[in-house]
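ok here's Helix-turn-helix domain-containing protein:
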Amino acid sequence: MQRVARRGGTAQLLQWLAVRTGAAALLVNRSGVVASPPSFPVGEAERDLVLRGVREITARGLKSAAIDQEGLACVVLYLDGPPGACVPLLAAVMPRPAPPELPLLLADATSVLSLCWQVEHARRQQRRLRIADARTREAVLHLLMNGHTTAARQVAGALRPALPDVVRVYVIEGPPAARGTVAGALARVVVDTWIVPCPVYADHMMVLAPASSEAHTDSPPQWAWPSSVADTCWIGVSDVVPLRDTATGYAQAFHALAAARHRTERLASFAGHPDLALTIGPAAAAWAGVFLAPLHAHCARRSQDPDGTELLATAASWLSFSSRATAHLKIHRNTLTARLTLIQDLLGLDLNRLADQAALALALRTSAADIQPRPHHRTRGGGGTAPSLDELLALPHVVAWAQRQFHPLQTPGIPTCIAQTLTTWLRLDARIGPTAAALSLSASAVRKRLTRSEALLQRSLLRSPSAIHDQWLALRALDLA
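and the structure:
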């Protein structure tokens, strides 16, 4: 019995008992529900007899019971377990007459079965705790990504460590075991890190490291890569950002990850460029206030319909994760489609067009940055005049920002076809097929050139969160100039 238990636990031990005795051996709980599949097929009469035995032993407070009924014999015994646990009972049912040594053999088996069940029960409890911890951390991350910092801190209060005020976001890509090893190595260097499986990409893990604990907050901490995972993982690192800007830090780390895939060291930090919303300044806030006014003013007609706040969160998630927003928001794809249709109707946009996507993305980023418009600019509730998007993009400092966006593609030694492919792809709403037809190339050739653009720009283009909205706005600014 000990050898069988070590090989296969309770299932193998029940099977061994069935072969040894010729009885159907199974575990049942106090309500008579089968807690483990029977080793032999059990009919209705056998189940009724087992249920009667469980009721007898429970009602009378016995440790064991033997019952005969209509040509069947049943023996029921309690297993040992920790206090407070719902320990099952061992039941064996077979045709009469039962061999006289059956009760003694089952009694001997209860000690080994009890230990096996306790081990399996502890493993199940550990798995439930891991799942609960991961889901709670995912909920905290979801709140942070949507800007609900106060609620995130309240939920995180049940866990450890406490959320820091400023963070550096790491995105680790690789096999599950390797991701965990790398995250653990980082946690040993930077104390009080938050390790969260990415809710959107199954091959990603996110690490929120307190930047205040680093020796130099202007550069990420260095740690020794485990040799076993040195060739299987990539890491993208964000700048130091306030906790409320975790979504920005994630986007930065994701873009850095795209650059890390093309480096031998497999690690890259975000190559900082000024954010367009901050580059434009207060005028962008005035434009965004008018642009998003229909969403802010929207009220749900029914209690189950989304209000303006939910629509804003849905738009931000879809622009960041495309169809994977269903995993981020935990909603059905039909719900996502219905919300996007409502957003289009309210704002008068066609979200199949990259131009409208880019405008909405800029407005949402400007709103999240909490930039205050000047008094002479019109806001949602005031007078004045708000500039158009083209007027904002035509500003000289915005044109200079746009030139910096494309500068890596225009350096000596870079084929002109790389920039040509990128600009054509942007003008054709980031669609591979039409771009390939316009340039007389295959779809794989277009993807290879865009991958080269990713490496040069150090930005993700083909995988969301993508930099295509910034790149389109930069291209539009250059066209206006």
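+1. Confidence is low (pLDDT under 50) at residues 378-383.
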